[in-house]
Each structure stands twice: as C-alpha cells, then as structure tokens.
Design brief:
There is one protein chain. By secondary structure, this protein is an alpha+beta fold. It has a domain of 107 residues: Aminopeptidase (3-Layer(aba) Sandwich), CATH 3.40.630.30. A six-stranded mixed beta sheet has the order 1-2-3-4-6-5, sandwiched between helices. The longest helix has 18 residues. The protein starts with 5 loop residues before the first helix and ends in an 8-residue tail after the last strand. Bound molecules: coenzyme A. Coenzyme A (COA) binds next to strand 3, helix 3 and helix 4.
Length: 161
C-alpha cells in the first residue's frame, strides 16, 4: 500500500457499506492517514495490511497482519476489507489464508486473532473459514463488546516454509 493507492483506498474506506461496523466512513484525508499508518507498520513491524489485487492488477481491498489490543493484551490480528462490488466472491478468505501462512512462517508460535463487531457476520464467517473459534470478548472498548476469534499457530518448519 503506497500513497499512489489513495484513490482506490479512499473509495473503499469512504463507502458506508464497507464501513458499516466502524464509527463512520473515512474521509480522503483519513484514508491518506490510513496508508501512512500502514507504511509505518511495514517499517516498524515488517507487516501491516497489504493491498489485495486481482491477477490483472485490479484493486480488490486490503488484508494483512497488524498488532492490536484485546483486553489490554497485545495480539496479532488478521484484518480484511473488500470493496463492496467484489464482496461474496471469496477474496477475503483467499487473502486471509495467505496471511495465516505468512504468520505461521514468520511470527509463530503465536495466537492469531480477528477482533470483530458482534453484528459483522461476514467477517466472522471469514475468521471461521480460517479455522478460528470464539476465544474471548474484548471489554476494553468504551461502547462495544467485541468478539475475539482466534487460533494457535505453531512454528512452520523451514522445509514447510
Ligand atoms: C468481511 C469482508 C472482508 C468479507 O469479504 P468477502 O470477500 O466478501 O468474503 P468471502 O467472499 O471470502 O466470504 C466469506 C464468508 O462470508 C460470507 N459473507 C460474505 N458477505 C456476507 C454478508 N454480507 N452477510 C453474510 N455473510 C457474508 C460468505 O458467504 C462466506 O461465508 P460461507 O463460507 O458461509 O459461504 C467484507 O464483507 C467486508 O469488506 N466487510 C466490510 C469491512 C469489514 O467489516 N471488515 C472486517 C473488519 S473486522
């Protein structure tokens, strides 16, 4: 994700259908901040949300690995957003499965989580398809109890990597 992706990212993050479970759709300036934060995560952590594209290079959304907080503990999360026109085609599941393999290879042993608004059925289905189960409820947020889905990741051997 680079500043050159701002048009696509602002379209997606400004779409009320994509941001239904966030406080509000993002403005173009907030989308630019989002990209900036991801670039800082790449530098500091070696990972963040990356762009999802079709094989032809068309913009699909973002998906990746970020450090988040659940009940005050630092947890690794897989996150995903798909532009509304391309939802329901398996893109989030395919991208998130690739992220599970990255996490298994480079960050395990760890627990991989997905921290989800309880009404966000599509997001929960993606987490379940990765093999996650409901492991906790995050009560650290001021106005919502979020569902913490998760699964343990064991270290992949070098041969598997
Ligand atoms: C969550 C999201 C990324 C899923 O992307 P996607 O590419 O449509 O997901 P997939 O096509 O891989 O579908 C995964 C599962 O979700 C289901 N699903 C997709 N859209 C759905 C919807 N609107 N309502 C209910 N289930 C839905 C699919 O049927 C599939 O479940 P199945 O295995 O039972 O068939 C997408 O809905 C999205 O961008 N939502 C807004 C952003 C968001 O909330 N991100 C998560 C933040 S925690």
């Amino acid at each position: 994700m680079t500043p050159g992706d701002l048009d696509d990212m602002a379209d997606m993050l400004g779409d009320p259908r994509v941001m239904a479970f966030y406080p509000a759709p993002l403005s173009r300036a907030e989308s630019a901040d989002w990209i900036d934060r991801m670039q800082r995560r790449y530098d500091n952590d070696g990972h963040g949300l990356w762009l999802i594209e079709t094989r032809d290079g068309d913009f699909v959304g973002d998906c990746g690995l970020t450090w988040q907080s659940a009940n005050g503990a630092r947890v690794l999360e897989v996150g995903y957003h798909v532009r509304s026109a391309l939802q329901g085609r398996g893109y989030a599941t395919e991208a998130a499965l690739a992220c599970v393999e990255v996490a298994r290879t480079h960050l395990a042993p760890t627990t991989l989580t997905a921290i989800i608004h309880p009404g966000n059925i599509a997001s929960r289905r993606v987490a379940e398809r990765l093999g996650m189960t409901h492991i906790d409820d995050d009560r650290a947020h001021p106005w919502i109890v979020r569902t913490v889905m998760g699964m343990p990741l064991e270290r992949a051997s070098r041969d598997q990597a």
